Amino acid sequence: MTQLIALACEPPEKSGRPITHWTGKELAEEAVARCIVDSISPSQVNRYLRQAELQPHRSRYWLNTTEKDPEVFRVQVEMVCACYHDAPELYQRHDTHTICVDEMTGIQALERIAPALPMKPGQAERREFEYKRHGTVTWIANFHVVTGELIAPTLGSTRTEEDFVAHIARAVQHDRDARYVFVLDNLNIHCSAGLVELVARLCGVEEDLGVKGKRGS
Questions:
Q1: Residue 140 — φ and ψ, nearest 5°?
Q2: What share of the chain has pLDDT > 90, as a percent?
Q3: How confident is the model at residue 217, as a pLDDT?
Q4: Residue 137 has pLDDT above 80, yes or no
C-alpha cells in the first residue's frame, strides 16, 4: 500500500501516461506494470486513496512568493493576516471597511451569434455554439472581507494607473463617511504616484508630496 500511495503522489507523466491526473483505473494499471502488485482493482485503489486522504482528481492554485528575504516575507504575511483578523472589529466598532482588491485582465467579451432556444418537453435548452469577439475587458473587484459583498466593481477595456486610481475613488464613494483598509498585491499600479495623491487628498493632506522616486514622500 505504501508503494501505491507513493505512486499516486507522482505526476502521471513520469510514468509516460498522457493524462494530467491519476484515476483509479490508471493507477491500478501502473501498479501492475511496475510489479508493485500482481493484480488490483480500481475500486481497491480508490479505497486506499480514501484511507490516505488523497484526491488525485482535485487541485488548488498556489502562488509562490517572489520575495527572497524570508524575514521580509514573514512580516508581509503577518501584516495581511492581521488586516483580515482585525476586519470584523474594525467594521463593527470603528466604521472601517476592509477591502481586498484584485484584477482579472484579458477577459474575452464574446457574443453568441444567435439567441438560445428555450427548453421544451423532451429537449433541453440549446445554446448557440458560434460567437463573435468584441475584444477583451478587465474586471477590477472589491471584496468586502467581513460581509462578503462585491462592492463597486469596475469593468473596462484597460488596466492603467489612471484606471486603478479612478476605481479606488469610486470604491470609497460606497460609504463616504467610513474609513477604509485596502489589501492589494505588489502590482506597480497599486503603488503609483496617482494613487498616493488620491489617498492624500481624501485624507486632507495638503503639503507637497514630492515626485515619486526623486524627492519627498
A1: -110, 125
A2: 85
A3: 62
A4: yes
Residue 171 near residue 195 (C-beta atoms within 8 A): no
Q: List CB contacts of 57: < 8 A, sequence separation 6 or more.
A: 21, 22, 23
Phi, psi of 157, deg, nearest 5: -85, -20
Looking only at the bridges linking them, the beta strands covering 210-211 and 179-183 are: unpaired
Residues 76/58, Cβ–Cβ less than 8 Å: no
- pLDDT tens digits, 100-118: 999 999 999 999 999 999 9
Weakest mean pLDDT among 3-7, 62-66, 117-121, 125-129 = 62-66
pLDDT for 216 beyond 80: no
Q: Which residues contact 7 (CB under 8 A, 6 or more apart)?
A: 15, 27, 30, 31, 34, 36
The Cα–Cα gap between 213 and 26 comes to 57
